[in-house]
Write a structure and sequence with these properties.
alpha+beta; FAD/NAD(P)-binding domain; eight-stranded mixed beta sheet; six-stranded mixed beta sheet; binds 8-demethyl-8-dimethylamino-flavin-adenine-dinucleotide; binds P-hydroxybenzoic acid
Length: 394
């Protein structure tokens, strides 16, 4: 088989890239290791930047998002005994945000690929890129005990943090920047009425986030130690602990119920440079991970797709490879901005082991400062809203 672009990974980055390229007349094949049902069972992000919303609309997958997603002015931040403030991105950054689940978005992308006859091969085992430093790369994989080969012009590595793409690049060609955090998020999904506003809660017991997907679907998180065992967290314990982290009025309003999903995600910051090696481009979580505190991971995956698809379109339609050559540099500017923001917000809102009473007061003083200083608030909002895509680049 031959195609122009082999896309490794059928998560949001890979599916959106194939959808965007298709609309510009560029062929691709998506190779996904998991089954479609598995990909669609993963519960992850919920908060889309406005640039992501526009990109999804342009890709022809915005219809259900515009119908079912919720447009928000921003999220709130609450901290012990001091009430809360709104990170009003509509007011300070001039654009709102959209609550729409990654699971739903992935469903929409699959539906769009199916409707356009896009090739998405699931349960592709042992996907392996070859000759990525030459002009004619190819990819092999196994399916139903048979070996297959696809020849292509370029490979897009959209296979997440644990994927094969980044690992296919000689380690000496990559520089890795990494930071671990000594905690994770325990998240639950429940069919209960959500609190009105997504709210990040700073508390001396640790961080909590109340969020939602839609009218009767709540998504909440609390900070936990890395060695936490899910079995030790029956629903009642989760709800009791969450209430302790919330402002009093929220704790009173909170409606509890059985969880329909419960999982723990460790927090991590990770970036590789460059995001390209020869004819292999890294996109989304394959190249970078941010802690979820800033709601940036999916949005970065979407902005990478934006820059890479524009580069590929310029290459095929205008015989101009200069945008592709700048892909890594351009994408990394946004990646680092979001990595810094996510790291900062994580540090501001979480409880760290060994943290002293002084450290806690310093966090509270910074929250106080953001709430009372318009310039600090504006700076926070600009970053939470997400930086605009760079025009004409990528
Ligand atoms: P994905 O979604 O991991 O998809 C990669 C796909 O590649 C497949 N794959 C392979 N396929 C073939 N061969 C191989 N060898 C393969 N290895 C892997 C996998 O099966 C998978 O289908 O990466 P992608 O597309 O780059 O998308 C990134 C996002 O999923 C991620 O950044 C976000 O979910 C992060 N995130 C959030 N991002 C936001 O923008 N806003 C949020 O509100 C937000 N909240 C979150 C989050 C992530 C969380 N967790 C669980 C880490 C909340 C949480 C709790
Ligand atoms: C979510 O709704 O899952 C969510 C919202 C904001 C975040 C992270 C996750 O920062």
């Amino acid at each position: 088989m031959r195609t122009q672009i082999v896309i490794i990974g059928g998560g949001p980055a890979g599916l959106l890239l194939s959808q965007t390229l298709h609309r510009s007349g560029i062929d691709s094949v998506v190779l996904e290791r998991a089954s479609r049902a598995h990909v669609l069972s993963r519960i992850r992000a919920g908060m889309l930047e406005w640039g992501s919303v526009q990109m999804l609309r342009e890709a022809g997958v915005g219809e259900r998002m515009d119908r079912e997603g919720e447009v928000h002015d921003g999220s709130a931040v609450a901290w012990a005994g001091r009430g809360r403030f709104l990170v009003d991105v509509r007011k300070y950054a001039g654009r709102p945000m959209m609550m729409y689940g990654q699971t739903q978005l992935t469903e929409d992308l699959y539906a769009a690929r199916d409707a356009m006859g896009g090739i998405v091969i699931d349960e592709a085992e042992r996907v392996t890129p070859h000759a990525i430093d030459g002009q004619r790369p190819w990819v092999t994989y196994r399916k139903h005990d048979r070996e297959h080969r696809i020849d292509c012009d370029f490979i897009a590595g959209c296979d997440g943090f644990h994927g094969v793409s980044r690992q296919s690049i000689p380690p000496a060609a990559l520089r890795v920047f990494e930071k671990g955090y000594p905690f994770g998020w325990l998240g639950i999904m429940s069919r209960t009425p959500p609190l009105p506003q997504p709210t990040y809660c700073h508390h001396e017991r640790g961080f909590a986030l109340v969020s939602k997907r839609k009218a009767m679907l709540s998504r909440h998180y609390i900070q936990v130690d890395l060695d936490t065992d899910l079995a030790d967290w029956p629903d009642e314990r989760f709800w009791d602990e969450l209430k302790l982290h919330l402002p009093a009025d929220y704790a009173q309003q909170l409606v509890t119920g059985p969880s329909i999903e419960k999982s723990i995600a460790p927090l991590r910051s990770f970036v590789v440079e460059p995001m390209r090696y020869g004819r292999l481009f890294l996109v989304g979580d394959a190249a970078h991970i941010v802690p979820p505190t800033g709601a940036k991971g999916l949005n970065l995956a979407i902005s990478d797709v934006h820059y890479l698809s524009r580069g590929l379109v310029a290459f095929y339609k205008k015989n101009d490879s200069s945008h592709l050559d700048r892909y890594s540099e351009t994408a990394l500017r946004r990646v680092w901005a979001a990595s810094r923001f996510s790291w900062w917000l994580t540090g501001l809102l979480h409880r760290f082991p060994g943290q002293t009473a002084f450290d806690l007061r310093a966090q509270e003083a910074e929250l106080d400062f953001i709430m009372s200083s318009e310039s600090a608030m504006r700076a926070m909002c600009e970053q939470y809203a997400g930086l605009p895509f760079e025009p004409g680049c990528g």
